[in-house]
Every structure is written in C-alpha cells, then in structure tokens.
Specification:
The protein has 87 residues and is mostly helical. It has one domain. Helix content is 78%, strand content 0%. The chain has four helices and no strands. The chain binds zinc ion. The site of zinc ion has 7 residues, from helix 1 and helix 3. The site of zinc ion (ZN) has 7 residues, from helix 1 and helix 3.
Length: 87
C-alpha cells in the first residue's frame, strides 16, 4: 500500500515508539524534536502514539504493528486535508 508521507516522516514514525519510550540517543531525539516543530502530521502522530503507548503501558504489552499502520493511514488523510486547505 502506498503512503503519501515524505521519507523523513516515515523514518520518524518508524522510530516514534522508541523515541517516546526514551530509548533513542540524545542526538536522534533532538533531530526528531526539530522535525516535530515543523511537521503537523508527525506532531499529530506523536501525540496519538504517546496516548496509545500510555494506554498499552498500563496493560504491559507492546504497541501492535497495526496501530502503526493505522497511524500512517490516518496521517495520509491528514496530509490530504492540509493540501485541500492550501498553504
Ligand atoms: Zn513529518
């Protein structure tokens, strides 16, 4: 399935759970935070995943892959909305 996200966004989202778990090194965290400051789609993804992780941490299970897939799908829609609005 094709996902209309930039490579940077896809890489960031792939690392998002480690980032939120505090498992990435400081340099990578800084890189992600800088991207989040400029990217609405990734900010939404981070916020959503942070809440999801908090939920799953309660139950002590890993965030399932389908949550990631769902998130990326939701982001595709989010980007389309931004494009419709114009810059
Ligand atoms: Zn992004």
């Amino acid at each position: 399935m094709q996902v209309p996200l930039s490579k940077t966004c896809q890489e960031l989202i792939a690392q998002l759970s480690d980032f939120l778990d505090g498992e990435l090194d400081a340099a990578l965290c800084e890189k992600i935070e800088r991207h989040l400051a400029t990217c609405d789609a990734c900010r939404v993804a981070t916020d959503t995943l942070r809440k999801t992780i908090a939920l799953y941490h309660d139950r002590r299970v890993a965030v399932p892959r389908e949550v990631h897939a769902h998130l990326i799908q939701a982001l595709g829609l989010e980007q389309m909305h931004s494009n419709t609005r114009g810059a």
